[in-house]
Amino acid sequence: MDTVEELDCENGFGQKINGYACWMQHRACATPAAKLRWALCCLYSKGRFLGFKRGQRAQHENTALIQLENVNSKEETTYYEGKRVAYLFRAPTAKKGSNIRCMWGRITRPHGNSGVVRAKFRHNLPPSAMGSTVRVMMYPSNI
Fold it and tell me: Which H, E and C letters describe the chain, residue by residue?
């Protein structure tokens, strides 16, 4: 699979490398087949950090609420229980040659009936991360 093919792209970007389209940067010029190939090889799905678990008066920062992409019911969340979650962010200073840092967590259980799950992170997520994207890894597998 070391072939390099060009996609129908007016600006020359969007080469397929090792059989997978690098369409993420050029979504407008990627073919539907290229998008499907990328989705099949991707090791994570997206989620959105909504906030923290809370009651009427108290907020519990040790449990984050995450809305999973394309998950709309409590039954669909059972596949994601135990999966690892990564919150990536840019730090002002570089460590080991990179400004990108990662905070790891794990999905523990569903929250409500609309596809939201609870996750516990090794270090609590900062409040500035509310509304940002997290990566829900497709491992460990429980199939």
Answer: CCCEECCCCCCCCCCEECCEECCCCCHHHCCHHHHHHHHHHCCEEEEEEEEEEECCCCEEEEEEEEEECCCCCCHHHHHHCCCEEEEEEEEEEEECCEEEEEEEEEEEEEECCCCEEEEEECCCCCHHHCCCEEEEECCCCCC
